[in-house]
Specification:
heterodimer; A: about 425 residues; alpha/beta; TIM Barrel; Alpha-Beta Plaits; 2 domains; eight-stranded parallel beta barrel; four-stranded antiparallel beta sheet; 13 helices; about 30% helix; B: about 450 residues; Fumarate Reductase Iron-sulfur Protein, Chain B, domain 2; FAD/NAD(P)-binding domain; five-stranded parallel beta sheet; 17 strands; about 20% strand; binds flavin-adenine dinucleotide; binds flavin mononucleotide; binds iron/sulfur cluster
Chain lengths: ~425, ~450
């Protein structure tokens, strides 16, 4: 049996699955039940300064995008940080941590960009016995209008400055949570590292409007006739988050900076993908908000089964396994040639592959009078579109052509020597160098 | 000339081998990977799921289906087996339409439940095909438990005890294990020798010794078992059958449906099994349906199941009733047998129509006669061979809580014990729960070997 015990920047938890800072972690009641359900750790819902807490809207704060069968694919929210008094949260954090010493408990923070404000709150957090802090530089709505959240996360200098304060005034491990609402995620990650961060976590939510009400001409969710952009999360954001994690993991400057992966993680597989892409652990919000705390059981059993199958016994050994294989386009092997192949036995003859290839690609799928679909190797460029639109998994696959065979599309013999764009004769810079 | 459906009397070979093979093939074949993904995708992962509540063994259905969705069918099988070690057989024989699938929220939403039973089979078949036993035995406790009966109740009890580190000896009257899984369940629900495969797989946990051909009351006694073992579990099922007390019921070819089914299940070659041209089955339960359907599938020309009350009272589910009628079996409701006619052997049977008046069954005064070369009685089974020292209640072994009988150190479960609903899955649940209670009693020393 695989050992899922996780050690992320010195913070131990029985598994690498943490709940991200959000409503699921907003109070003691939730967090205790989350631990009982099996979550390895939680990042407490973001705390603000002492004094009157923020207020939330009293109308709908979520909007959603659904797939077939009303499966929730994307969630948008306009919720702020915790709207409960600081001292209540602190008391609860202390009590929960005392009762669950084996679980990770991180406290997320967001206070104004003033040294004293950070200094004050850090002392109070340290007092709770929490395992570490996470700096919320990511929230893209509401708090950003007040110069916090993503307003800080979009300015690398601020990230570095605040991170430095936190490391200066506290002994706790410090995770900097990044916003995806930037052009190049490597800059804020480098700034966090420069400020002394122990790790970064990403992504927070993406600026979004999920839908518009066509009767009242207002974005949804609508509050008294008006709507505001919110933060997008859930399965739909996973590809964006994965790429950002990969960017940081591949950047020589931040290559050794631990990453807590967040964004659309719903199953063990999503979690494993983030981890092999460089995340030391993962955080989950929308999946829990869609299916309840119990989803973690599938994540635990699935990751264990996969690790057993791969004969990997320690979760630490999967971290970053895909990073060396994540490359730039220019280094992909142009001599790798494949052709689509349709398994006639599995084919249900819907014709979707034909429609997309004929109308929008390379006219490489043939359809007989009796609806038998086959691939014309003379035209197939192996783009994968037919595979992606086929409703039957495994029915269409791309098969590599063996070296020495001739590609009927180009008439060239397949070579087993790797050759990429950097050496390709059509590349102007190659010619220029000659 | 070879026999056909039209051949008079009770003969074999009414149908050719190909037709028989087709007739007795898997009722609900295993889902392929694609079908399983599509079916699993429909599960909503309900909170405190109604299906889980409806399953007598409380399998975590939403979890096991989610595990199928995410490509971890082995983890899914573990989820099932941890609650129900006969999850493979249950996936085949449970009347899901009156259990988990009846309460599926998608039954409410669209009248089409998630196919829980077939998904369960998908997951369990996969792991069993790999020959993997999902459990490891705990360190030996040195305790020994006797289990009487190798049916679902006994096997489930024995397996759980073995997992917990106890040594188990199963005594069964028959030369083969499995109980009604092997001798009772309709052939098309458990094809290709599945009952024996499952038995072998279950026993691979180790620590369970089989003693076949040992009849409690003849070859062994309860007193001796109590001396030899630290605890005893009785899972003997219902060995006897109710008699039919009408004129002519002693004529030839008036037979017990369960024996007919057992013969059919054990037949090496269905083409050699004789069946009547005109077959009448009396009863309203699963046994009646199974006897009727299998008689028809063997090539009987006409088969009637006659039940003395209305359709709504029939203990066989609507699905089972429709299965019978779809195979061409006629179900006659509200009629009770009066006399068997015929010269030495049965030739016909007369029925009187009934109606329910003030909750009581009364005759309408009308009657009819059916032609019959073979009459199968499926009017209920009874307990047989219960040691005299045990308290009996409602013709079953009296039990409280998790199968505790009136005797210290003796537990009972499955069909032979009071309560339950005579289903495979209930027997599994009772065997498992008794095992857990036995384990507690062995550990705290409240159950141990008796002095002679
Ligand atoms: C024809 C038929 C069809 C059925 N179909 C279904 C179905 O589709 N789905 C469903 O859920 N349920 C079905 N059932 C009910 C189900 O088979 C039983 O509820 C279940 O098998 C009960 O399990 P058990 O372990 O209590 O008893 P059994 O399965 O009856 O096993 C009892 C075992 O004890 C042994 N035994 C009996 N007496 C003694 C003795 N004195 N000494 C030693 N050993 C003894 C027997 O040989 C047998 O192996 C059906 C029943 C019948 C008869
Ligand atoms: C309703 C809601 C409230 C959130 N509040 C916070 C917050 O207070 N602090 C924070 O750092 N992130 C917050 N997030 C962002 C999540 O922690 C997480 O980064 C994001 O939802 C992406 O993960 P997911 O796709 O698993 O949901 C919130 C998300 C949602 C949906
Ligand atoms: S989930 Fe529904 S019931 Fe619960 S607070 Fe939100 S709107 Fe109200």
């Amino acid at each position: 049996m695989a050992d899922l015990t996780s050690n992320f920047i010195g913070i131990k938890s029985p598994n690498p699955f943490w709940l991200a800072s959000a409503p699921p972690t907003d109070k003691e009641y939730n967090v205790r039940r989350a631990y009982e359900a099996g979550w390895g750790g939680v990042v407490w819902k973001t705390l603000g300064e002492a004094g009157p807490p923020v207020v939330n809207v009293n109308g709908p704060r979520y909007g959603a995008v659904w797939g077939a069968d009303r499966r929730l694919l994307g969630l948008n929210n306009i919720e702020l940080i915790t709207d409960r008094p600081l001292e209540v949260n602190l008391r609860e954090i202390k009590s929960v941590k005392r009762d669950y010493p084996d679980r990770a408990l991180i406290v997320s923070l967001m206070v104004p960009c003033e040294e004293q404000a950070w200094k004050n709150i850090l002392a109070e957090i340290e007092d709770t016995g929490a395992d570490g802090i996470e700096l919320n530089f990511g929230c893209p709505h509401g708090m950003a209008e007040r110069g916090m959240g993503s307003a800080v996360g979009q300015v690398p200098e601020y990230i570095e400055m605040v991170t430095r304060w936190c490391k200066q005034y506290s002994r706790m491990p410090c995770i900097v949570k990044l916003t995806p609402n930037i052009t190049d995620v490597r800059m804020p990650a480098q700034a966090a590292l420069a400020g002394g961060a122990d790790a970064v976590s990403l992504i927070n939510t993406i600026n979004s409007i999920t839908s518009v009400n066509l009767d009242i001409f207002a974005p949804e969710p609508t509050i008294d006739g008006k709507g505001a952009h919110g933060g997008y999360c859930g399965p739909a954001v996973k590809p964006i988050a994965l790429n950002m994690v990969a960017e940081i993991a591949r950047d020589p400057i931040t290559a050794n900076l631990p990453i807590s992966g967040i964004g659309g993680i719903t199953t063990w597989r999503d979690a494993a993908e983030f981890m092999v892409m460089g995340a030391g652990n993962v955080q989950v919000c929308t999946a829990a908000m869609t299916y309840g705390f119990k989803v973690v059981e599938e994540m635990i059993s699935g990751l264990s089964q996969w690790m057993d199958e791969k004969q990997i016994s320690d979760v630490a050994d999967i971290v970053g396994r895909a990073v060396p294989n994540t490359s730039d386009w220019q280094h992909l092997n142009l001599n790798y040639i494949a052709k689509a192949k349709i398994d006639e036995d599995l084919c249900i003859k819907c014709g979707r592959c034909y429609a997309v290839c004929e109308d929008t690609s390379h006219q490489a799928i043939l359809m007989s009078d009796d609806r038998v679909f086959s691939v014309n190797d003379d035209e197939c460029v192996a783009c994968n579109l037919c595979v992606n639109v086929c409703p039957v998994e495994g029915c269409i696959s791309l098969e590599q052509m063996a070296a020495g065979t001739t590609d009927p599309r180009t008439g060239t013999v397949v070579s087993d020597v790797k050759a990429d764009w950097t050496t390709h004769p059509n590349n102007p810079s190659v010619t220029a160098a000659e | 000339m070879p026999n056909t459906v039209a051949t008079d009397g009770i003969v074999s070979g009414r149908l050719n081998n190909a037709t028989l093979k087709d007739n007795f093939s898997d009722l609900h074949p295993k889902l392929d990977d694609h079908e399983a993904l599509v079916a699993a995708d429909r599960c909503y992962f309900c909170y405190d799921a109604p299906c889980m509540e409806a399953c007598p063994t409380s399998i975590d259905i939403p979890l096991f289906i989610r595990q199928i969705s995410t490509g971890t069918a082995d983890a899914s099988a573990n989820t099932i087996f941890s609650q129900n070690i006969l999850g493979g057989m249950c996936a085949r024989v449970c009347p899901t339409e009156t259990l988990c699938e009846e309460v599926c929220v998608r039954e409410t939403a669209e009248g089409k439940p998630v196919e829980i039973g077939r998904l369960q089979r998908y997951a369990t078949d996969g792991l069993m095909a790999k020959g993997q036993q999902p459990f490891v035995r705990a360190a030996s406790t040195g305790k020994s438990v006797a289990v009487v009966g190798a049916g679902p109740a006994g096997l489930s009890c024995a397996h759980r005890l073995a997992v917990l580190g106890h040594d188990v000896v199963i005594y069964d009257a028959r030369p083969k294990g499995g109980g009604l899984n092997e001798f009772g369940i309709a052939a098309y629900k458990s094809v290709d020798g599945f009952a024996q495969q499952e038995l072998d797989w279950l026993l691979s946990i180790g620590g369970i010794t089989m003693q076949y051909g040992k009849i409690l009351g003849a070859d062994i006694t309860l007193e001796q078992l109590q001396v030899d073992h630290d605890a005893v579990f009785l899972g003997m099922g219902l060995g006897g059958v109710n008699g039919l007390d009408i004129e002519g019921s002693d004529k030839d070819n008036v037979l017990d449906a369960v024996s007919f089914i057992a013969d059919l299940r054990q037949a090496s070659d269905l083409i050699k099994l004789p069946i009547g041209k005109h077959v009448v089955v009396i009863g309203g339960g699963m046994t009646a349906i199974d006897a009727g359907v299998q008689a028809k599938l063997l090539g009987a020309l006409d088969v009637s199941i006659v039940y003395r009350r209305g359709k709504e009272n029939m203990s066989a589910s609507v699905f089972e009733q429709e299965l019978a009628t779809s195979k061409g079996v006629r179900i006659i409701y509200n009629a009770q047998p009066v006399r068997v006619t015929g010269n030495g052997a049965a030739a016909g049977i007369e029925f009187a129509y009934t109606q329910t008046v003030d909750g009581k069954l009364a005759l309408t005064g009308e009657s009819f006669t059916l032609q019959a070369d073979q009459i199968f009685k499926a009017i209920g089974q009874t307990i047989e061979g219960v040691p005299g020292a045990l308290k009996i209640e409602n013709r079953k072994i009296s039990v409280t809580g998790t199968g505790r009988t009136s005797l210290d150190g003796v537990w009972a479960g499955g069909d032979c014990a009071l309560g339950g609903d005579d289903l495979t899955v209930t027997a599994v649940a009772e065997g498992r729960d008794a095992a857990i209670d036995i384990h507690t009693s062995l550990i705290d020393g409240t159950s141990s070997k008796k002095e002679l």
